[in-house]
Write a structure and sequence with these properties.
Elements lengths: L3 H23 L4 H8 L3 H8 L7 H4 L2 H16 L4 H16 L3 H9 L19 H20 L15 E4 L9 E3 L5 E3 L2 E3 L5 E2 L4 H11 L6 E6 L2 H9 L4 E3 L6 H9 L7 E4 L8 E6 L2 H7 L4
Parallel strand pairs: 7-8
Antiparallel strand pairs: 1-2, 1-6, 2-5, 3-4, 6-9, 8-9
Helix pairs in contact: 1-2, 1-3, 1-5, 1-7, 2-3, 5-6, 8-12, 9-11
């Protein structure tokens, strides 16, 4: 595991400081003056100037970095810019490069697993970043799956089409923003069979029901489907859940929206089947574990 800050320390700082030290020396400053401006030792300046420090070629050839170095060197050498001002400009530049730019690309080379998160994957200093939110969803789903695995009666609730436990990102727009168990959760001779670890974009049906519920006004972030029986719906209702029925043969988004129109806080959706459609109960929850725990009441 390597943090982007390590890329900054190992790759950016030696390259940037050596370039800036060279530019300041070219403007007539002594090694002692350069050391004072950069807040480093004279021996470090000597190493930078004499090429004794390994530099990153991609950073060296970056036009924006070269322009920044020239601007800072000119300002520092002339006295028009203080070291603090130079630090602020350099810091802003580094943060830019961390957010999907050159430092982000260098970080991806060190941590290839980050590549799955798309163009904004490297905004990892932001508490609301996609990376952090996605990892929280996956961790939540893993907890939910463990609950299902440890619920002895769960295999009896798995419908013929299989079950799935899904959870979405806070601002989910499509099934790629919904994580689920790949394939289906199955009843394998009385045990709960989980094909693999949760991933994003691997559920179409249960994810679509969750998204339809959210579009209809629900604030649920997770859903779990189980087989339908009137007794199952009754048991959930008796346990304090609000259940609403939707039409299995109608357009899903419209049908779920109609069902939630009078009960937007409903946490159980069900349909009693249709032509070629198995009847199913969908339990909604704030997260995967919440939806999974509901089945323990059945």
């Amino acid at each position: 595991m390597k943090f982007v800050e390590e890329v900054v320390v190992d790759e950016f700082l030696p390259t940037f400081r050596s370039m800036l030290a060279e530019a300041l020396r070219e403007r007539g400053l002594t090694q002692s003056e350069v050391a004072e401006l950069l807040g480093i030792s004279q021996s470090a300046v000597s190493k930078y100037v004499h090429g004794e420090v390994e530099r990153n070629d991609r950073l060296l050839s970056d036009r924006r970095l070269r322009e920044l170095v020239e601007r800072l060197a000119e300002g520092l050498a002339s006295g028009e810019m203080s070291p603090v001002q130079a630090l602020v400009e350099a810091e802003v530049f580094v943060r830019r490069l961390e957010r999907g730019d050159l430092l982000a690309q260098l970080h991806e080379a060190e941590m290839p697993g980050l590549a799955e998160y798309g163009d904004d994957r490297f905004a990892i200093h932001d508490p609301e970043s996609t990376v952090r939110a996605a990892e929280q969803v996956l961790a939540s789903l893993r907890r939910g799956v463990r609950i299902l695995e440890n619920t002895d009666e769960f295999p009896d609730l798995v419908p013929a089409v299989g079950s799935n436990l899904v959870e979405c990102l806070p601002e989910a727009e499509g099934i790629e923003d919904v994580a689920a168990v790949p394939g289906r959760i199955l009843d394998l001779e009385g045990t709960t069979a989980i094909p693999g670890d949760p991933e994003f974009g691997v559920s179409e049906h249960v994810a679509s029901v969750l998204l339809a519920a959210r579009a209809g006004g629900s604030d649920a972030r997770a859903a779990l489907n189980v087989r339908y029986e009137a007794d199952i719906v009754e048991t959930l209702t008796d346990a304090g859940y609000t259940a609403v029925e939707f039409d299995a043969e109608a357009d899903l988004t419209e049908a779920v929206a109609d069902a939630l129109a009078d009960s937007p806080d409903a946490d159980v959706l069900y349909q009693t089947g249709g032509f070629g459609v198995e009847p199913i109960v969908y339990v909604l929850g704030a997260d995967g574990p919440t939806a999974a725990r509901a089945v323990r009441k059945l």
